[in-house]
Structure formats: C-alpha cells, structure tokens
Amino acid sequence: MVTQKNSLGLNVSSAGLGRTTKNSQRQETSSLVNEAEIYGRETEKKEIAELLLRDNLRNDGRFSVIPIVGLGGLGKTTLARLGYNDDRVQNHFDPKAWICVSDDFDVTKLTKTILTSIVAHQNVDNLNLNKLQEELKKQLVGKKFLLVLDDVWNRNYNDWVEFSLPFGASARGSKIIVTTRDEKVAKIMGTLPAYELKKLSDNDCLAVFAQHSLGTRDFSSHMSLEDIGKKIVIKCNGLPLAAKTLGGLLRGQHDRGVWEDVLSSKIWELPEDRCPIIPALAVSYYYLPPILKQCFAHCSLFPKDYEFEEEEIILLWSASGFLDRKEREKTGEDLGRKYFKELRSRSFLQQSSNNKSRFVMHDLVSDLAQWAAGEMYFTMEYTSEVNKQQRFSRYLRHLSYIRGDYDGVQRFGDLYDIQHLRTFLPVILSNSKPGYLAPSMLPKLLKLQSLRVFSLRGYRILELPDSVGDLRYLRYLNLSGTEIRTLPESVSKLYNLHSLLLEDCDRLEKLCADMGNLVKLHHLKNSNTKSLEEMPIGIGRLTCLQTLCSFVVGKDSGSGLRELKLLTQLRGTLCISNLENVKHIVDAEDAQLDRKENLKELWLRWTLYGSYSREAETEMGVLDMLKPHTNLEQFCIKGYGGMKFPTWLGDSSFSKLVTLKFKNCDMCTALPSVGQLPSLKHLTVRGMSKVKRLGSEFYGDDSPIPFPRLETLRFEDLQEWEDWIPHGSSQGVERAPSCIGDACY
Asked: Which GO-annotated molecular functions does the record name (predicted)?
C-alpha cells in the first residue's frame, strides 16, 4: 500500500478518504452553465426538457419528482442545469429555485433556503419549521414551480415526506429534479422512474479531451496525436470529468512521448480497493510538479462545494512557505497566481458558475485532494453537539473546520496537545451568522506556538490576549468580522507576519502603535473598519506592503499622508479617509500617489461634520497633489470641500479609467472635463448641491466625440439643478444606454 501511494506522490495515511468527515453545511451549486463547453448531451437535454414541460405526468395533479441518477463525474448537475436553463423551461415555471443539498438533509435549513431563493429580501432567520412551511405553502399556492435539489444523499423517507408538505399546494405540472448517485434515494424521492445518465460515447469523450488538451474539438491540427489520444480516452471510461482533467494535464504538450508516458503509467493498474480515486484523476495528480502537489493538497482545507477566491488560497500557500522560492524575480504572490493558473488549466480548480470571482473543486477532485493530503490535513465537520469530542492524528499539521454557532473547548478534543499544529482555520459558509468561541479556548490555542496560520474570523470576540505575541512563527492572522476594539501591542512582535486581515471589524478603533516593526507584512486588509481613528505612526516603514485597503489620516500626533511615500508596492484598492486632517499641502505631495502604478481603485474621502468649517483652499491643494498614476481604473472623490477640481482630473492620459464617482462635493459649482476620458464607462454625480448646469467644459474642448465609451450616467440629489445639457453638446450622453437620476436628457 505504501509503495503504491509513493508512486502517486501521496502522503502515507491510515485515514485515506475518510480523513475528512463530510461537512453538513455546504454552499450551493449554481444553476448557471456554459453550454459551449458541453458535448454529447443534446439528446439528454431534450429528454429532460420534455419531461419538465409535460403537465400530465401524474393523474392526481400533484407535483412530479424526476431523479437523475449516475456515477460521480458523469455530469448529473450539468444535465440538470441544461434542463433548468432551457428557454422554454424558464418561461414555463414561476417560481424557480436551485438548492445544493449534499450530505445534510436538514428540513428547516432547506426550507429556509428555498424561501429566500423565491422571495427576495425576506427575513426567515427566526421562524420555526411550522412557520417556514406555512410561508412556503403560501408562496406556492396555485403556482407552477420548478425546484432542483442537487447532490442528495439522504435515504430517510420520513425526512422527505416532512420536507415536501408545502409543495402539495402548488399548481398541476410543478416539478422537482433530484440529482443523486444513490439509486435508493431516487426510489424514495422519485414519483417517476429514475433518469439514468449514461457514460459519454468514446467520440464525445474524445471531443471533451481534445477541447481541453488542444483547444479544439478534434485533432485536425495535430493528427500525429489522434491515435494515442483515442487510447487515453478509452481509459476515461466515458466520464466527462476524467476526459477534462486529463486534457488539462496535456494542454500545451504536443510531444508524443509525453502522451505515451501518460498512457503507459502504472497508476492505471492500481486496484480500486487500494486507490479509491478515479484512475484518470490519479494520473493527472501524479504528473503534477512537486510544488503543485503541495499547493493542491492544501486545497483540501476547503470543504466540498466551498467557493473560494484566488487570493484566499494564495495567502494560505504563502503562510505555509510554498511561495518562498524566488523565480525570475517574481514576488511570492506572483508565483501563487502562476500556480493557481496551472491548477486551473489542469481542471483541478474550476470557476464558479455562480460567481466569476470565486472557484470550486469538483467533488471527486476534492476527494483526490483529501487523499493526497493524508493525515497532515484534516477538515472537521460541523456538529451542534458542543460536547462531542474529536480525536486527531498525531501527524496533524493543518486543521480547518466548519465554524459553528458556538464552538466549545470539547469540540476540539486533544487538539491542544498537538504542539506542531501549523494551521487553525475556521471556514465560514454563506449566510452564516457570527459565532461564539468559548472564552477558555483562546488561551489554549495561543499555546500552540508552531502556528503559521491562525484565524478567528467571524467570532464575537471582544479582545485578543497579549499572548498572541508569543506566536513567533505566525505568518497569517485573520481577525476579520470580530468585535475587537484595539489590536494588542504584542502583535507588533510578530516579526514574521505576512498577512493581517481585519476586514469588517467595524468596532476596531486602534491598531498597535509599533506596527512599523512588522517589516515582512505584505497584506493589511482593513476594509470596512469604520471606527478606526488613525493609522499608527511608522506604518510607512512597511515597504513590502502590497495590500492596504484603508489609510485613515490622523489628527495632530497621528500618522500623515507622507507615511504613504515609500509604500510603492501597493496594489488593488486604497481608500484614504479623514483627509480634512491634512493641514499642509506638502504632506499630500509627499504621498506620491502618482508613483503607485499598481493601484487599480482609489477612494479619496473627506469626512463631513454638519457645521464643519471647510478650508477650501487647503482642500483644493491637497486634491491637486493627490494625483494618482494613470493606470487607475476606478476613482471616487467623496466629501471634497474645494470649490473646483484640479485640471488633471479628466485628462485623457487616464486611459484606463472606467468608473468615476463624485459624491457630496458640496462646494463645487461645476464638474471637471471628463468627456475626454477614452475608457470611461460609468459616471456617477451625487449630492453636489451647487452644480446648476452642465457647461461645455464638462465635455472637453479637445475631443470631437465626448464620452466615447460611456454606458451608465447617474445623477442624484442635485438640489440647485437648473439646466440640463446645452444644445449641440449632448452626443456622448445620448449614447449612454443607461441614464439614471432625478431627470435625464
């Protein structure tokens, strides 16, 4: 067994696939589908759509349940999506809902999810099951609904009967699609015979393989590879996922020898009882470079169906030391993006169809990651049994768990004895409320002094013990969503800290005074920290910073804009607030925003205090000196008290600027000349009470066609507005497809 695992490059594990307990709270799959990437399912799509459109499937007029049954990786969810998104089906049903069920068939939670899917903005958090079902029944009375229950495992007939009670009020022809690997589930839930999804034909499987390996549906441009490609596809056994993954493995590899190596690999011959992984996936894993094997195994920290952002996993890779190796002068983050892209190209990671900025692993790929990770990784299920103890392997190094409503000491069993633990990571699923952590847990956790990753995200924690400063190896600290008011001074002793996450800490008032000591810090994610009073003096010494979401200008002894001078690596989004505290224009000049070429989004905010006395000349000078780099893509000015805007604003050199917003700039009587911005698509003007009209200067004199790319123009709360667009100057605005406001030309 060990020899066979070594051939795969896997860790030795006595736990195997059972090492990760199935979580009971998974995020939803999505109903969206890219039909251009699907082959060989035209007949199946037509048949499912016809079943959905028939209203006479049952003589008693009740709703019908159509089970789709098949092996993992066969495309059951994809087929359900094809039927759900058929144009005729979309017009035939109302309401419609798509629910990912997975392991936890919790009737109350499922009913809540359906209600929130079909009734926007309805608060159902505090309703018991009886009230939930009454409300759902009310919403379905006389309506022809379509519901998809994706990935169902529960065989309990009584659960199904209780869950389905509200559906009886619906109109004739209502349908429920159930996808499952389990034929017994299909028999329990189905009112119709199960639709058994067959394997793809070799020809269709070959088209999938060719698309992902060569970028085309056939081998016309690489005829020498066709014969060996057909042999590889036979080993995919008709599974689209296998063909896609093997195609990704060979993408860009046109050397016949490489293809022959894959075909002749001994991994194909491993018996199923020794390696319960689809052979094609095991082969794909085997041929990963060692560093990608490490990165992929680390993805096992995320539970099945969990949707994550690229940066989320890259920061964890970095904290575990996977990105320390320098390559062609790339930063660690650049390496992380490269590795992420390679895993995507090999189909180990796939883009969420629900949210294009998030990613997910197929269930079977997740199984492979768990197998690869061995006993060094463990993902713990959520349980409402607070006193249920969990035992951990002595080889454990990385722990993640589904965060509960209340997590007590007992839940983590003997974890506190594992002194070599490196990762403690709660995973929060969508729509979760803040959770509670037993007060006695923190001191115990902070004794695990080998930690590299420590997260308390989303817990209602009021303060962090000073002993956090003893975690001298810590590289990643996540306190986002907690209720802390101050950051302990001991945090400034975490000299190896790479990432400090404080997002949504809306009670946070103060950072540690000596934060400038954290010279290895790359990411300070502090967005939505509305109570933060100022940045600590010396933060300008953090010259490795790439992420600084919010910079709060201090009063008197607080840090000023000049602290930004040496932070030349900043990228992404930066919001500079409390700009009314800048008393000297030279401080704004020292910020040198025009040298921060990697910034994509910039917010400049002055805070309004009712009768606040404006220093208009100073504010005009400050804004003039805060000219950003021309690579900027999004720009917002809010609360500005100057009487006019600087001349650089609207200059055509800002060729990448797509979104521009002016908010509550009360003293300005005219808008800047933004008509010459070549890429501007979205323009918002809000709360500018002294602007009375749009003059010709708004369009710019040098451009024959102002606003060449404008798509959205929004005007709101212009109290002194008198006159709209001058005659003969409106062609740019006329082309805007969307014009929103109190009035619109």
From this structure: ADP binding
Return the higher-pLDDT residue of 199 and 745: 199
Residue 694 pLDDT > 90, yes or no? no
Q: Which of 180, 196, 212 is the last residue of a domain?
A: 196
pLDDT tens digits for range 71-101:
888 889 999 999 999 999 999 999 999 988 8
Q: For the beta carbon of residue 481, count every other beta carbon within 10 angstroms.
A: 22
Residue 561, class by beta-carbon neighbours within 10 Å (0-12 exposed, 13-18 middle, 19+ buried)?
buried
CA distance to 312, 349, 398, 499, 523, per residue, from 333 (Å):
11, 18, 21, 12, 11
Q: Interhelix angle for 310-319 vs 290-298, to 10°?
A: 110
What is the C-alpha to C-alpha distance for residues 544 and 533, in angstroms, rounded to an integer? Answer: 23
What is the rounded average pLDDT of the residues 496-524?
Answer: 97
Q: How many angstroms separate the Cα of 218 from the Cα of each of 202, 208, 556?
A: 13, 9, 69
Instruction: State yes or no: pLDDT of 727 exceeds 50.
Output: no
Q: Which domain holds residue 424?
A: 382-532
Q: At what angle do helices 240-249 and 202-214 cross, to 10 degrees?
A: 30
- State how many domains the chain has: 3
Domain identity same for 169 and 207: no
Q: Is pLDDT above 90 for 404?
A: no
- With a CB cutoff of 8 Å and minimum separation 6, the contacts of 536 are 511, 512, 513, 514, 515, 516, 559
Q: Got the DSSP string for 11-62? A: PP-SSGGGGSPPPS--PPP-S---GGG--S-HHHHHHHHHHHH-S-S-TT--
Question: Which amino acid is it at 453?
Answer: V
User: At residue 255, what is the residue type?
Assistant: D
| Cα–Cα distance, 130 to 489 (Å, whole number) | 50
Average pLDDT, integer, range 330-353: 89
Please name the residue that has the structure tokens 């594990």.
13
Site of tokens 């619906």: 170
Distances (CA, A) of 172 to 64, 90, 175, 336, 673: 9, 17, 9, 53, 60
Which residue matches tokens 């009971």? 24
Q: What's the N-to-C CA distance of the chain in angstroms?
A: 74
Q: What is the mean pLDDT of residues 663-681?
A: 91
Q: Does 341 share its domain with 454?
A: no
Asked if 283 contacts 258 with a C-beta cutoff of 8 angstroms, the reply is: no
- C-alpha to C-alpha distance for 235 and 230, rounded to whole angstroms: 9
Region for residue 53 given its phi and psi (left: phi exceeds 0; alpha: psi -120 to 50; beta: otherwise):
alpha
- 305 band by pLDDT with thresholds 50, 70 and 90: confident
Would you call 406 exposed, middle or buried from its count of C-beta atoms within 10 A (0-12, 13-18, 19+)?
middle
Sign of CA dihedral 161, 164, 167, 173: negative
Give the per-residue pLDDT at 8. Answer: 43
Helix (H), strand (E) at residue 132: helix 129-140
Q: What is the pLDDT of residue 2?
A: 41
SS3 513: coil
DSSP string, 214-282: HSSSSSTT-GGGHHHHHHHHHHTTT-HHHHHHHHHHTTT---HHHHHHHHT-GGGGS-TTT--S-HHHH
Tokens 């990385």 sit at which residue? 398
* Cβ count near 255 (within 10 Å): 10
- Take residue 86 and report the two structure tokens written for it: 């058929």
> Does a structural domain hold residue 701?
no
Dihedral sign for Cα atoms in the order 714, 718, 722, 726: negative
d(CA 170, CA 166): 8
- Helix H or strand E segment including 148: strand 146-152
Token pair 């939803």: residue: 28
Q: For residue 155, what are its two tokens?
A: 């065989």
- Whole-structure pTM value: 0.78
Look at residue 612 in the predicted model and tell me its pLDDT. Answer: 58
Which among 320, 352, 377 is the end of a domain? Answer: 377
Both 319 and 417 in a single domain? no
